[in-house]
Amino acid sequence: MKAIAITRPGEPEVLQIVERDVPKPTGQEVLIRVFAAGVNRPDVMQRKGNYPPPPGASPDIPGLEVAGVIEAIGPDVTQWQVGDPVCALLTGGGYAEFAVAQAGHCLPVPAAFEGSGGSFVQAASLPETVFTVWHNVFQRGNLKSGEHFLVHGGSSGIGITAIQIAKAFNAKVFATAGSAEKCKACMDLGADQCINYREEDFEIALKERGIDVILDMVGGDYIPKNLRLLRPEGRLVFINTMKGGKVNGEDPVDFGLIMRNRLTITGSTLRNRKNAFKAALASEIREKVWPVLEKGLFKPVIAQTFPLAEAAEAHALMESSDHIGKIILVNEQT
Ligand SMILES: NC(=O)c1ccc[n+]([C@@H]2O[C@H](COP(=O)([O-])OP(=O)(O)OC[C@H]3O[C@@H](n4cnc5c(N)ncnc54)[C@H](OP(=O)(O)O)[C@@H]3O)[C@@H](O)[C@H]2O)c1
Fold it and tell me: Phi-psi bin for 253: left (phi > 0), alpha (psi -120 to 50), beta?
């Protein structure tokens, strides 16, 4: 099969097409003929050498999510059959014509997407962001109906997912993004307010409202601002710290605020979690989030698709941050 490998840490050009053996599913694994593979910011971090794959994951083929058709099943798989259309969360190996996934980490391609030409492209845009958002916003952050929710990077793959799922569960949704066009996209997806952080200080813009749950991927100088925005019992959830995980002395974090307002600071990374955790997360998502997709209350936002061979161009677009929504690699079959 053809796959894209990270030939050495570096710029997008280090992503090269290679020939590899088709992997064989064992035990609880399925083999998926990949029609579409999602590109995620963690893939960029891995390409640069800053996000090593966990043990057992493909050492050099990136790709954390795919959609396609089950080609073969391992001897212990009972819930899927050859030919089933699925999307799946992977620990790596998605930038390829075939990939193995844990059976418990697969979900059916939503019927609402079927029939449209891009159903696999849309389905491939889901697993990494839906798993991350459900776990961090709803399981860790415990977002409840009627609460105020803020997501930074509102037009990112994570952001467009967080806005729509939080809206579907009746939160009041706020977002930040880096341009008027990105803010419009967030509003079109249902955000109640989006702050263009290049023109306005989000802390000042949202101070009167107060926020119950914040999903942050930025960190750095956002950290003390986030803490000051939280209402009593508020929850601050980190999924990355793109501007740094440490706070400088100009605006120090007031830990007294955490006590006085009984705040919770938490966060997680998905990729290194155990298979059983991800399988339990997948079943909860199938029960709670898949009905939202089936009702058409969630719109996948595809910024651009690229042929698998053009993975380097896809990474360059992601690093430009010019995109809104998800970037997807497609194999010729689609
Ligand atoms: N912990 C986990 O389990 C987990 C899982 C998946 C993803 N993540 C993280 O979630 C974030 C979003 O991932 P994604 O795949 O959705 O990414 P993405 O689509 O590339 O979006 C990232 C967006 O963040 C915004 N941004 C704000 N500050 C930035 C900065 N200092 N540097 C770069 N971008 C900045 C940019 O939009 P603006 O123009 O608005 O600034 C950019 O478009 C990433 O940081 C990723 O590492 C974490």
Answer: beta
Q: Which two tokens stand for residue 194?
A: 């989006």
Domains of the chain: 2-126+271-330 (3.90.180.10), 129-267 (3.40.50.720)
Query: At 317, which helix (H) or strand (E)?
Result: helix 311-320
The identity of residue 306, as a single letter, is F
pTM: 0.97
For the chain, which residues score pLDDT lower than 50? 334
- Locate the DSSP E strands across 228-299: 230-238, 264-267
165 burial class (0-12, 13-18, 19+ CB within 10 angstroms)? buried
**Ligand 1 pocket list (CB less than 6 A):** 40-42, 128, 132, 153, 155-158, 177-178, 182, 217-218, 239-240, 242-243, 268-270, 318, 321
Token pair recorded at residue 210: 């107060």
Residue with the two structure tokens 């796959």: 3
Q: How far is the CA of 222 from the centre of ligand 1 (A)?
A: 14
Helix then strand then coil, % of the chain, to nearest 5: 30, 25, 40
